[in-house]
Amino acid sequence: MDSNDDISQRIVGHDKTAAVSVYRSIMQAIKDGALKAGDKLPNERELARRFETSRSTIRNVLAMMSTQGLVTRKVGSGSYLSENLEQQLNVTDRPVAAWHQEVPTYTEILEGRLLFEPMMMNMVASRATDEDFARMRLHLEGIREAQEWIIYKEHIYAVHQAMFAATRNRFLIQIFDNVIADRRAVQYDGQHAVHAAVSSIVREQTLKELVPLVDALEARDGKLAQKRADDYFTRILVSLSLYG
Q1: To 10 degrees, what angle do helices 200-218 and 106-127 make?
Q2: Average pLDDT of the chain, as a whole number
Q3: pLDDT at 135 (0 to 100)
Q4: I need a surface site. Which of 33, 56, 80, 100 has the fewest CB within 10 A?
């Protein structure tokens, strides 16, 4: 068995019918130590065969992991887990899946948002004004400059709130107002002290995902924005299932 076959066998084991399942399988293998920094992944065709899915699904998963800095894609050579894999995993803002009696958990909220928020991006792309985009950019800069964890989290939610406001749909706006109220009620499940310092590496990783989403919206490319939003929420939800 060649090295590609060996690695492929190690990442099989979960539902293989959608990108989230493939992504979760690979991330679980990394967490378990079956896949390590520098390992070469099988090519798209082989991964698609192993996971019984399409090459486009595999391509989307690899693109998402590349955006996160977890995979390096070399033209003519293939895809490799990044040499600084551990560092990239450690900078992720890993949420806490705490249980709450009074409000929905973060997992419950994300599951609901993933069902409709990516599709909402088409509405945002078509209805947002220059003022809406300016507000999104303002809070993206707030993420970049935030020194305290709670301020960092507030700016992340403010970016999304600006997107909801841009729909001009009062029902959607009301939904997100409730989401923010629930998250504030538990101080965003603070795994850090609310006034603890947040590193520039964590902030830059967040911007690496949110800035391209806003770029797509401002370009009025609803389809691309939908994909980027879907990738963003999927990554967080999978992180919850693995590390929460």
Answers
A1: 40
A2: 85
A3: 98
A4: 33
